[in-house]
Amino acid sequence: MAMQVSESDQIKQFKEFLGTYNKVTENCFMDCVKDFTTRDVKPEESSCSESCLQKYLKMTQRISMRFQEYHIQQNEALAAKAGLLAQPR
């Protein structure tokens, strides 16, 4: 049976996404863009922005993986405590 996400949950998730997007954009902009004397984006500013975003994405992915690992360990510990899994040797 597939879980359906309510419209209010979708709106909440989208708002969270926009908040995160705006925060990352602002942080990378403040760190990378230094020259406002021209309309052109300098190569070093572009490179810095791309690097900033890549670091953020890698960090988010790593945190997500650790969070999943933690929950798997917690669920296994609870199941073992309840006697649902064979005890490790």
Automatic annotation (TrEMBL):
Tim10-like domain segment(s): 9-69
GO cellular component terms given for this protein: mitochondrial inner membrane; mitochondrial intermembrane space chaperone complex
GO biological process: protein insertion into mitochondrial inner membrane; protein transport
Localization of this protein: Mitochondrion inner membrane
Gene Ontology MF annotations: metal ion binding
SUPFAM superfamilies: Tim10-like (SSF144122)
Family to which this protein belongs: Belongs to the small Tim family.
Record note on quaternary structure: Heterohexamer.
Protein known as: Mitochondrial import inner membrane translocase subunit
Species this chain originates from: Acanthochromis polyacanthus (spiny chromis)
Source taxonomy: Eukaryota, Metazoa, Chordata, Craniata, Vertebrata
